[in-house]
Design a protein that fits this description.
Blueprint: H1 2-22, H2 26-59, H3 67-180, H4 245-248, E1 295-297, E2 304-306, H5 321-333, H6 338-349, H7 355-368, H8 370-377, E3 385-395, E4 398-406, E5 411-416, H9 421-427, E6 438-441, E7 455-458, H10 460-473, H11 479-501, H12 510-544, H13 556-569, H14 571-577, H15 579-582, H16 591-607, H17 613-631, H18 636-644
Parallel strand pairs: 3-6, 6-7
Antiparallel strand pairs: 1-2, 3-4, 4-5
Length: 684
């Protein structure tokens, strides 16, 4: 029995060991637990059996009566043991099955181990690949970071480039606008406008091209130099055929006796046919006049008689008024440089006249014209229409203002250190004007200052050029400017036709003027909203691109269009621009003032600058004298000659009083016309 228990115990232990060692499944764990319970049960039964045996041995003798009872208990124990043995055999059978399963599991384990080794090998390979991929991933992440930083930098650069691109587009549009500017759409002189194949040849006006060819049209009057009357002929020169050269013997007139070179017969008057051609020429003759001033003393009464020497010949020797006039005409009228004037005079007259003398003579002429300029200044208040303009010139290395005031009969030039309101006040022209006067100008807002009382008129030439410039820079969205320009041009042509057909015409129909202004107001209101919206979108786009400037400047074309809209939207400005529609006496343009300043621009090209502001003032006085004389039919040479002869032309000798619009109010000693005069202006 004990051996069997030992076998069972060893078998169970073997099974437990084998099961513990090789099987990790749930079935193996259950079997091991059952074996342990059986072993524990067997141990407890063995212990109980031993205790019963001892009790039996102890009570055999004293407890015979209990023997049967003990036997029965032993039988029950044996029966229980048999049951356990049967159960153990069953468990052993199950254990064999488990062994088979364990063997299978071992095989599976072996396979799993092989698979595990292969998996470990593959895992190692995967780990190596993972390490490689991780390295690549780290590299890629580093590259991604670098690319992200580069992308960030590129985005910043892109924003900056877009901002720069926007600015460059604005600059390009501005430069394109400047390049497209010519004498047709801006105040650029024709001489500064390039002529190319792709650019139309500029003309100094706004006339439209017609189908007629250039030059004189069929039926036009031919201008040809006419022959002079006989009284003006200063000499004759006869010309005979070459065969008579021996008989002429370099004579200028035909000899009294003339023979035929062929037969020797005498040539009579009836054989001659004359064709006369006139040649107009001049010759320079230097007159050296020696003036002798006598002083007489009577020997009887000791009375002394002395003549006063004129200032123009006070030196021992000096140049006469004609030479002085020629110098000044070249210098002031011809805008010839001092050096070239000296060369021209030296070439023509064979006189060595220095440049210093020419400069001194120019200053002297300016001083002589000062009184004439002051008298002309006092006349402007008596003219109904006055035009003025100014420009910037150089003097002694700085910019100064050169200004002109013009009417149909007088011109006044002034020079100032600065171009400002104070200069206008110092001139004393605009401040002396009243509601009887109308001043035409180039939209200089200083004319609307409250210190002035005159009426305003604006130059339409500048307006038409600005409208054309806006259209040429933005043909896709600024068609209204071309339509307005064409409408104004049509009204100007209609005005000119009305004046040509009937000189008594004074204005366009009032209904037509009102319709024009009402339509213009509606167009300006709608365009202003569109242009302001475009400017806001431009500013928003610039802000989005990173432009942090306090003030974003819109494109030049939009600014110019907005300036035109704002200017014409002001009723006072609109009335000034189109005042000529209601009164044909008002000029359409201020070209008279602009032409008066062209010589000063030429002067700057030739001389570069004036020596000083004072020199510019003397030049202005000379130009006042010359231009006023020119408007009254006196050429510059005669005007300057009269000045140097001491007999200058004056306001009275030019009969300027006869041309005054308000001559009934003019008196040389009268004070300026009061601005409180309540008289209806001629243009209202």
């Amino acid at each position: 029995m004990e051996q069997f228990e030992k076998v069972i115990h060893l078998s169970c232990n073997a099974l437990i060991v084998d099961g513990t060692r090789w099987v990790r499944s749930s079935l193996y764990n259950q079997l091991s637990n059952d074996c342990r319970r059986m072993q524990y049960r067997i141990a407890s039964l063995t212990t109980e059996r031993d205790s019963l045996k001892q009790e039996l041995e102890q009570w055999t003798q004293p407890a015979l009566n209990s023997e049967n009872k003990a036997q029965r208990q032993l039988a029950r124990k044996d029966s229980a043991y048999q049951n356990l043995k049967l159960k153990f055999e069953q468990q052993k059978s199950q254990g064999d099955k488990l062994k088979e399963q364990i063997n299978e599991l071992k095989k599976e384990k072996t396979n799993l181990i092989k698979q595990n080794v292969a998996s470990q090998r593959r895992c190692a390979e995967f780990e190596n690949e993972n390490a490689i991929m991780q390295a690549k991933n780290d590299k890629f992440e580093q590259q991604i970071k670098e690319l992200e930083e580069e992308l960030k930098t590129l985005r910043e650069e892109h924003s900056e480039l877009e901002l720069t691109n926007g600015q460059l587009k604005d600059n390009l549009e501005k430069i394109t606008s400047q390049l497209n500017a010519d004498s047709n759409n801006s105040g650029l002189p024709t001489s500064k406008t390039p002529i190319g194949k792709e650019k139309r040849k500029p003309v100094p006006n706004l006339r439209q091209k017609s189908d007629r060819r250039k030059g004189g049209q069929p039926g036009h009057r031919k201008n040809q130099l006419a022959q002079s009357i006989d009284e003006l002929i200063t000499g004759y020169r006869d010309h005979l055929p070459e065969e008579f050269n021996e008989q002429m013997q370099d004579r200028e007139l035909i000899p009294e006796i003339l023979n035929c070179p062929n037969c020797g017969a005498r040539i009579t008057d009836d054989m001659l046919t004359v064709r006369e051609k006139e040649e107009i020429d001049f010759e320079i003759k230097i007159n050296r006049i020696r003036h002798r001033f006598y002083e007489i003393v009577c020997s009887h009464c000791n009375m002394r008689f002395k003549i006063k020497i004129p200032n123009q010949i006070k030196e021992p020797a000096q140049y006469g008024p004609h030479i002085k006039s020629l110098i000044c005409v070249l210098l002031k009228g011809g805008i010839v440089s001092v050096k070239r004037v000296s060369l021209i005079i030296n070439s023509l007259l064979k006189l060595n006249i220095s440049e210093g003398y020419i400069c001194k003579l120019a200053r002297q002429l300016g001083e002589m014209c000062e009184d004439f300029s002051k008298k002309v200044t006092s006349l402007f208040q008596f003219f109904a229409i006055i035009g003025w303009d100014d420009t910037v010139v150089r003097a002694n290395g700085k910019n100064i203002c050169f200004r002109t005031y013009v009417t149909n009969f007088i011109s006044l030039y002034t020079a100032h250190d600065q171009k400002n309101l104070q200069g206008l006040i110092d001139d004393g022209i605009l401040t002396s004007l009243t509601v009887l006067n109308r001043v035409i100008h180039d939209h200089n807002t200083v004319n609307y200052n409250e210190i002035f009382n005159f009426l305003n008129a604006e130059c339409n030439a500048h307006l038409l050029r600005d409208l054309l410039r806006v259209y040429e820079n933005n043909k896709d969205r600024a068609e209204w400017t071309l339509e307005l320009k064409n409408t104004i041009s049509e009204l100007i042509n209609k005005r000119n036709s009305m004046v040509e057909e009937d000189s008594s015409s004074t204005s366009l129909p009032a209904e037509e003027i009102n319709n024009f202004k009402q339509n213009l107001i509606a167009v300006l209101a709608s365009r202003k909203v569109i242009v302001e919206q475009m400017i806001q979108e431009h500013e928003k786009r610039q802000r989005e691109l990173g432009n942090k400037s306090n003030k974003i400047i819109p494109p030049e074309s939009l600014l110019l269009e907005l300036r035109i809209i704002n200017r014409l939207s002001v009723p006072e400005y609109m009335d000034a621009y189109f005042a000529w529609m209601g009164n044909f006496n008002i000029p359409i343009t201020n070209n008279c003032s602009e032409r008066a300043l062209r010589t000063e621009k030429t002067h700057m090209k030739v001389s570069g600058q004036f020596a000083s502001t004072e020199t510019a003032e003397y030049h202005a006085m000379v130009m006042t004298y010359l231009e006023t004389c020119k408007k009254n039919g006196i050429n510059s040479f005669d005007a300057i000659t009269a000045m140097f002869e001491g007999k200058p032309y004056t306001v009275e000798s030019l009969n300027l009083v006869e041309h005054l619009d308000y001559k009934e109010m003019y008196h040389p000693s009268a004070p300026p016309v009061s601005s409180e005069l309540n008289k209806t202006p001629p243009d209202q």
